[in-house]
Amino acid sequence: NDQTKMASRPLICPEKGQSGYGSAPAFGNAHSVNGLRRPARIVFGVCSALVLVLVVMSGQLRSSMPNRVDLAQALEDKVDAEYLQAEGSGKGGKAFLKKLQDMWFVAQYRGMSKVANDATQLSNQMQLAGFPSDMLAAVKEDVNPCDDFYEFACGTWNNEHKDKIDKFKASIAMGWTKASDSIRGDMSKIFEKDAGPAGTYYKACMDLDRIDAKGHSVMEPWLQAIDRIHDKDSLIKTITDFNKEGMDVLFEWGIDKDPRNGQQYAFELGQSGTSLPDKTYFLEDSEDMETHRKVFKETVEGMFKLIGRPDPKGEAELVFTLEHKLAEMQEDKVATRGDHGTPITWAEMEALTPWWPWREWVQRLSTCTPYLDGAAPICKEDYAALREVGTPQGKPLLLTSKPFFQKLQPFLETLDIEQVKAEMRWKLLSGSISSLGTKYLDTYFGMLKDLYGTQSRSPRPRKCYNSAVEAAAWPAAKLYYDNVFHQANQGAALSMLEEIRTQFKAALADEAWMAPEDRKAAVEKLEAMFFQVGGPTDAAGQPAWPPQTTVLDGRLGGDMYGNDVIIARIGMDRALQKLTKVPERRDWGGSNTPMEVNAFYGPDRNGLWIPAGILQAPFFDASLPDARNFGSIGSILGHEMSHGFDDHGREFDKVGELKDWWHEDTVAGYRKRTTCFRDVFDQFTVKGRHVSGDLTLGEDLADAGGIKFAYRAFTAKAQRTEEEERVFFTSFAQTWCSVDRAKAVESQMLSDPHAPGKFRVIGAMTQFPAFARAFHCPTGSPMAPPADRVCHLW
Predict the structure, then answer these.
(1) How would DSSP label each residue in 135-189?
(2) Whole-angstrom Cα distance, residue 182 to residue 170?
(3) Is 699 in contact with 736 (CB distance < 8 Å)?
(4) Residue 93 pLDDT class (50, 70, 90 cuts)
(5) Computed from CA positions of residues 335, 338, 342, 346, in that sequence, does the dihedral angle turn out positive or negative?
(6) Cα–Cα distance, 461 to 205 (Å, whole number)
């Protein structure tokens, strides 16, 4: 065929009169790493070796041929990196690299593994010449980047760390773990000396003797309240009392910005969660899932033994039976991901699920009463705005997962109250596990070990650091921002964001599949997108730390469980008070803080939050070249910006309101293009289980947009060499180098809207032709599909 013919007689070595392998000047007495050869002899030897390889491929080399050159042996000698870098950068050098990659591809296809490996080793030596040493240390140099770019970029690091996952971890990641560990190292020292909420909480957690001595006695008021339940009315009253302290039973509820009106909050109802990561764990008929269910029941039984329940095994079975029924009723994660809530009235809710007294429940919920432990309420008066929810004069009532509530009615009609009481005991224990003593942690750990493969509990200082960061999130974030964060990084990140936005705007303006009005509206949305980088700021860019930063001052003490109770009550009061307020678009929300090693986009606010925690090496460092910074943090920034136009974000307009703001033809064109990405990710599997392209679509589209616009910003800023482009793409890939325990991957595949890191790299790179050009990947090779199989959105 044409492909075989093309590869059987490539022009690898120059003919007389032709140019050589690049435009670099001669190096005089330049030497190889071994100091044995001149560069000219290297090229001559490589060319001679490759000619002989081609003869082998055509079947013309006889075993008796004298002075046979063994290419593999020749490649064992390290070649001068500086020379190869220069020689590979010129026109002739690029042609040479292309021929090597063509040779690899054809030889691999024809089963000539030795020839394919030899071509890979030589091409990799040339393409990796000049790479930073720390990046090169992660690369697996015997893997062709056109075959499996993730394995090429991460293979050596992954192999070196696959057996080095700490026993208390489910995974480690080259970049993310390094950044998180750096923050923890600095902040743990600060917590030890801090007299504020974060330090106080941390020290209370470290007082394990006190926690062990108290056991579960700290929970007695709530356990006794459960014991007093004897009929429907007492059940509903007690569930409502638990709701006031943040524990949901049978269904979930919350208060968030109204997706259809940015000037108000809404009250939302949603389906119940369960204790295992996904409904699949309850419903799938497989040996693995049966084991998970068995360990779950054993864990519940063990916890009930610790609190002295008379029939712990029987009650554990009650918990499992109830949660199994809830799992049967649940909508899956694909359905809930795109559910923005349907406006509904309480009368309609009572018609849908009449067993539950909805209006009576919300009246009780809105009443300011003492807590179950007798403590005075945080509130000063009833929540009048909550009582008016779902009425013409009140804030909207939104229902998500409507099919769940349709199924909830027949379930409630035959409800076993003892089942619900057992579930409430379990939820109380599992929800409080972080602040209970050693024997409770040890018992609960059995389930975590089974679900995620971890081999031991976290060391106490690490566990207390994590607990303090979660419980006193904003006080901890302020300490980090003031004492650790290099604030000069904010300006550099903002500049990069603007450069990426410029490229995104240019792409939107040229999208022929969009109606002209829709293109204009999309550009306006991108222009209206705000950026918060490092820490919270107002619209003028001035620091604007939220009330959560100081609300815990002076309110925490030496009792860890008591601290958790206070924090939960303050948080609930703040949530209920939202119904009287106008949302602030720039608000970071309750859980996202500047200390996180992460980044966020809010579709209902049309804004980006880039925490201080991620603005550090290896993601970003002012001393690193553009190729590394744009490839890593640049692609992350572009990823978050692209979320504004993913399959979920594109439904919201420029001020973050849910509207049909695109024409039907534009929406149809969008869906056609995004279906292509879904189909790509549907093909990826781990141990026979497929990635759900529907579940991961939003993240996959964001990855595709992120890498594309970061690359365009990178190449627009200055003229780039091929070597710089290869560093850019490798920096992107190495952002996702990680090793995971098998059980953790199983959980991720079923419950995480992000595909595993390997597939994020392969999925993004195979759909971005600039990658294939930079690495001279032959069309049709695994990382360079034909043009008609490449997905395009922007």
Answers:
(1) HHTT--TTS-TTT-HHHHHHHHHHHHHTT---TT-SEEEHHHHHHHHHHHHHHHH
(2) 19
(3) no
(4) confident
(5) positive
(6) 9
Our CA dihedral for 678, 684, 690, 691, rounded to 10 degrees, sits at -50
Looking up tokens 């100091």, which residue turns up? Answer: 35
Alpha carbon distances (Å) from 25 to 248, 334, 464: 72, 58, 60
Determine the average pLDDT of the residues in 488-511.
95
Q: Does residue 105 contact residue 146 with C-beta atoms inside 8 Å? A: yes
What amino acid occupies position 452? Y
Least confident of 76-85, 178-187, 569-578, 776-785: 76-85
Q: What share of the chain is helix, strand, coil (3-state, %, to 5)?
A: 60, 5, 35
The answer to whether the bond into 618 is cis (omega within 30° of 0) is yes
Task: Please list, residue by residue across 217-244, b when 16 or more beta carbons sit within 10 angstroms of its beta carbon and e when fewer do.
Answer: ebbeebbebbeebeeeeebbbbbbbbbb
Q: Specify the length of the chain in residues.
A: 794
pLDDT digits (tens, 9 = 90+) for 25-69: 222 223 222 332 333 333 434 444 454 444 344 333 333 333 333
The pLDDT of residue 16 is 31
| Residue 772, pLDDT above cutoff 70 | yes
Sign of the CA dihedral running 710, 712, 715, 717: negative
Give how far the C-alpha of residue 265 lies from the chain's centroid of Cα atoms, to the nearest Å: 27
3-state secondary structure of 374: coil
85: confidence class by pLDDT, cuts 50, 70, 90: low
pLDDT over 80 at 7, yes or no:
no
Count CB neighbours of 563 within 10 A: 24
Give the model confidence (pLDDT) of 715-731 as tens digits: 999 999 999 999 999 99
How would DSSP label each residue in 191-252? Answer: HHH--SHHHHHHHHHH-HHHHHHHGGGGGHHHHHHHHT--SHHHHHHHHHHHHTTT---SEE
- pLDDT surpassing 70 at residue 466: yes
Residues paired with 534 in a beta bridge: 611
In sequence order, what DSSP letters do the residues of 253-264 get, joined into one string? Answer: EEEEE-TT-TTS
Q: How far apart are CA 782 and CA 147, in angstroms?
A: 5
Sign of the CA dihedral running 650, 655, 656, 662? negative
Residues 598 and 227: their CA atoms lie apart, in Å, by: 43
Side chain identity at 301, as an amino acid letter?
Answer: E
Lowest mean pLDDT across 8-22, 148-162, 570-584, 587-601: 8-22
* Per-residue pLDDT, 590: 61
Of 6, 670, 491, the C-alpha closest to 660 is 670
Query: Within a 10 A sphere around the Cβ of 381, how many other Cβ atoms?
Result: 8
Residue type for 608, please?
Answer: L
Backbone angles phi, psi at 533, to 5 degrees: -120, 130
Tally of CB atoms within 10 A around 759: 23
Contact between 444 and 430 (Cβ < 8 Å): yes
Asked if 418 and 235 count as a contact pair (C-beta separation under 8 A), the reply is no
CA atoms within 13 A on the CB side of 557: 6
Q: What is the pLDDT of residues 602-649, one digit of tens each?
A: 999 999 999 999 999 999 998 899 999 999 999 999 999 999 999 999
CA triple 600-605-608, angle to 5 deg: 30
Check whether 151 has a pLDDT greater than 50.
Answer: yes
| Whole-structure pTM value | 0.88
Q: Beta strands 342-343 and 397-399: pairing type?
A: antiparallel
Whether 153 contacts 734, CB under 8 Å: yes
* Calpha distance 293→281 (Å, rounded): 7
Kind of pairing, strands 607-611 and 530-534? Answer: parallel
Can you point out the beta strands (E) in 258-328?
265-271
CA dist 223 and 304 (Å) reads: 11
Burial (CB < 10 A; 0-12, 13-18, 19+), residue 308, is exposed
Q: Decide if pLDDT at 382 tops 50.
A: yes
pLDDT band at residue 592 under the 50/70/90 scheme? confident
